[in-house]
């Protein structure tokens, strides 16, 4: 028995991706990303477009810390 459910890819403010049945609206805090298909097609799409699964706020914090460290090294060196 195959799953005939059509899914849509949804994204939240942290740029995290998830699959949601296309027949229903996504939960509060999530928006439709635009891709629809089978579960397998949607998962393949998410794998392509979301290679870094860390939340956006963490990626920004780490980038800021790296920038601060690089600036400090340049001043010290």
TrEMBL record:
Gene3D superfamilies given in the database record: Structural Genomics, Unknown Function 30-nov-00 1gh9 Mol_id
Q: What stretch or stretches form a coiled coil here?
A: none
Residues in domain MbtH-like?
1-48
- Which InterPro entries does this entry report, sorted A to Z? MbtH-like_dom, MbtH-like_sf, MLP_fam
Identification of the protein by name: MbtH protein
Natural source organism: Kitasatospora albolonga
């Amino acid at each position: 028995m195959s799953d005939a459910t059509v899914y849509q890819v949804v994204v939240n403010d942290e740029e995290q991706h998830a699959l949601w049945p296309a027949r229903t609206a996504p939960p509060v805090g999530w928006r439709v990303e635009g891709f629809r298909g089978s579960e397998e097609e949607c998962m393949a799409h998410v794998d392509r477009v979301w290679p870094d699964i860390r939340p956006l706020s963490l990626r920004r914090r780490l980038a800021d810390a790296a920038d601060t460290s690089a600036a400090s090294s340049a001043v010290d060196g």
